[in-house]
Amino acid sequence: MYIDFGDIYASPFLEWWNSHLQLFAEPALSSEDFAAALGIDVDNLAVFPNPEKSLTALFDQMRFMHQHLRHHYPGRSPLADRMPQYPIYKRAKVSCLHLTLLVYDLKELNPDASDLDIAELAGIRSSLRLDGRSLNQLPRFDFDWLNLKRDVEKYQKSAVQRLTRMANQYVENVGLGIFPKSDVR
């Protein structure tokens, strides 16, 4: 199914990504292609706005010209024909997607590592505080920080477990041609 991905590992990822963008996004349509699809010669189309008119009037005239062109040059929009080879299932937050896949990679590379170790390697931090002090500040102020440390560790473990479940769902759904999709939260 994914034969057109090529060898992902043959070159640096960004180089591969830049040469395979059309797999996940609509190919760019140049203004010349768009004009040709509408039957417009872009070399002879000129617009001369009247500088004495208000900005609102200029926008109204541009809107009228756009509607006029759409009326006189009907047909399918060239945008309707453009579809990615592998459509994105939904728009995901890149930082969350990156963290999810990072945790998955770390779990694959270190199967015997504890969830706390994975959280540390992935950089999962907690913003939990006790009396306005973070976990790093508590020993300096002689606070009883064991309870907060236990809560932070519990948060980090549950975050790694949740991200691992999501990553497993992503991997399963990629095999079905759906990405990024996770039914688990």
Describe the structure.
By secondary structure, this protein is mainly α. It folds into two domains: about 30-80, no CATH class; about 90-175, no CATH class. About 45% of the residues lie in helices and about 0% in strands. It is built from six helices and no strands. The protein has helices at about 15-20, 30-40, 55-70, 95-110, 115-120, 145-175. It is elongated and about 75 Å long.
Blueprint of the fold:
Blueprint: H1 13-19, H2 31-38, H3 55-72, H4 94-109, H5 115-122, H6 146-174
Portion in strands: under 5%
Could you tell me how far the N terminus lies from the C terminus, measured between alpha carbons in angstroms? 28 Å
Low-pLDDT windows of residues = none
Give the helix/strand class. mainly alpha
What is the count of DSSP helices, taking H or I runs of 4+ residues? Answer: 6
Q: Give the overall average pLDDT.
A: 76
Radius of gyration: 27 Å
Brief account:
The chain has 185 residues and is an all-alpha fold.
List keywords for this structure.
single chain; 185 residues; mainly alpha; 2 domains; elongated
